[in-house]
Amino acid sequence: MRWTGLFAAATWLAAGSVMAQDFEIGAFRQHRAAAVAAVNSGNFATARMEVSQARAMLPSAPSVLLLGAQIEAAAGDSQATKAWLDDYLKRGLWFDPARYPGLAAVLDDAGKAQLAANGADFGTFSTLAEIPDAVLVENVAIAGDGKLYFSTVREGALNRFEPRFIVHDLPGGQGGYGLVADGKTAWLAVSPGGVAGVSAALREAELLHIDLKDGTVVARFSDYGAKGFNDLALGRTDLYSSDSQGGAVYRLKGRAGKIETLIPAGKLGSPQGLAESPDGKTLIVADYPSGLWRVDLATGAASLLAVPDDVALPGTDGVTRDGNDLIVVQNGVSPARVLRVHLTPDWQVIESVEVLLRGGVLEEPTGGVIYGGDYVFVARSQWTDFGEDGAKVPAGVKPAIIGRLKLRD
Questions:
Q1: What is the spatial distance between Cα 151 and Cα 3, in angstroms, rounded to a whole number?
Q2: Domain containing 67: what range?
Q3: What residues pair up with 319 in beta bridges, in sequence order?
Q4: What pLDDT digit, counting tens, does each position of 205-258 carry?
Q5: Are 101 and 239 members of one domain?
């Protein structure tokens, strides 16, 4: 269903749940859709009941918090509208007051100040590289020799920045997505996709192990159940990959042999970035609709991490470990943000979340890597410069930007 008008803000985004073990994304979406249908038919009692049930499942879901405010605004209850918005704003979230003047009108001076603060640019980073070519940069890695590599989707390839040298070119219909470097080699997640500019009907998803010296493929791995390999993470001994289209998470034990399914399709909505804990016992997976999930690597048990009352983690894409913390890229909210997630030593609890960057030139940022104590990442990926059919948007293509964010003084 396509939502328009007053309730268009009720998108698919959602964040972490207090009752992680009970979370089921299908039921959550059903309650939210029922709330939208009810309010559109003027049935406010049912709309309130359904949106409250969705909120109980995912208390920090931005879509639900904004929908709840819209329902109460339509019902004419300004006090209840403000209560929903207060919860929304305290989590650092922003909405465009010009688009939703009815919601903005109920805010008091403190609420208006909070809204402005949530939408303001914050933090700075230096530009490490610009790629002017219309290639759609997805991820970056730095090899053992300190050279910068990046993957491209539209002209599928593994590239080295000189300013752009193609190390390994992919066949038409395949795009380069997740990328990690391991000394003198790199791992590249390859997925079929029309955005690459050529029909992907005859292509399959693969994980490629590539020699960075000459671009030869050392080994290739595939799983016929995967619709596409997206993000990658290197652990102590294993390689992990997410399938954002199919919903599964995969592991390549010992970085060799056969790909195994760590999380089967159906549990997550759209898995994205991943990171293994320092002790190698836990994997964190970002699920775009629902937040950060914790996976026990010994048992495979997965649960959605709870978030503090002032946090929302919808639209999380890139995930990188920095010591015991995570640096995550959140491109599913506006303005986009780079966050530091502080975890307990066992990675079972999110203690707090710190905003490192917000807005500015960040435009569909994706993922990155820790290098020299800094975060090197794709600050502008060019995803917004192409339509779903792979064609360039009328405004044209602007350079992709790889940034360097200083994490320590």
A1: 34
A2: 5-119
A3: 328
A4: 999 999 999 999 999 999 888 999 999 999 999 999 999 989 999 999 999 999
A5: no
